[in-house]
Amino acid sequence: LVEAFPDFCDYVEHLTNEFRSIKKMHNQSSVYKYPGKIAVLHSWGKLRSWSLSGHFHETYMHDLIHVNEALSGFPMDVSFINFEDIKNGKLKDFDIIINAGKASTAWSGGDAWKDADIAASIQEWVNNGGVFIGIGEPSAVDGFNRYFRMASVLGVDKDTGSRVCHGKWPVEVDAHLHSALLPEGAEVDSNEWLYLTDGEAKVIEQTRGLPAIVVKSYGSGKGIYLGSFKYTSQNSRLLLNLMLYGMNISLDQKYLPSSVDVECAYYPEIKKMAVINNSGKRTQSAISTDAGKIEISLEPYEMKIIEVIDEILTGRKQR
Q1: 165, 273, 305, 315: which sits with the fewest CB atoms below 10 Å from its CB?
Q2: Span of 138-152, 157-171, 189-203, 238-252 with lowest mean pLDDT
Q3: H or E element, residue 127
């Protein structure tokens, strides 16, 4: 079928060789990672790691498949857990918990959130320093005084009709956090009928006068809420920024490209770094390494493998 398209065959050969190069480096070295271990919490846990009920194009309407796409490029450990794992004491193994999905779905958790012990365990975990990230309708279930069981942690809840006559806290964007955490071009929409639960939450972004991105300190930890999440390079960097901020870690990390369109993986045992341009345009990026800062120029979708050696300290630029 493809014999008559030599350009296509040549490009597939090129991509295959790139994969071989990456696999070889993985066999030679572990990958440099940022601090923090992430757990994605839903009803399936590790039985459906990295997928939902089908391929991306079949489940694109779910926030979680977009979250998974972003997480797959982060230099951090990611696990998938279910609610039984929480009962079995697995929370202590993680720094960040992500719960993303619509109410009454396996991804949000549905009736699992009716278990008071689960809600209390997560609240205690956040109070002791954990970071709970809720997206869409996290921990949503009927029958309680709050629709989001984690509303006290997240600082937001959804009005299902019972609060129609209640006053609302004003939605005022924190200009400093907005500037520090929100990359140019990042977009997060809000859910209808969202409201702030108290005056302690800080709004990073709003849409239509509703909170779209909210952070709240809860004891020694933080709750972080996003009204939605769609994968783009800008939104992926936003999620990473929020994670680092939640763990009180500097956003200025080694091996984090200055361009949101660029990703890199560093293999410290062989001192090599794979850098890729995810965009369809020529892109330049600066990357801080153990041997100093380098500047690199990449053609559309190009990958380069760079040796991170002391010569970089001389100011030599990689082209």
Answers
A1: 165
A2: 157-171
A3: helix 116-127
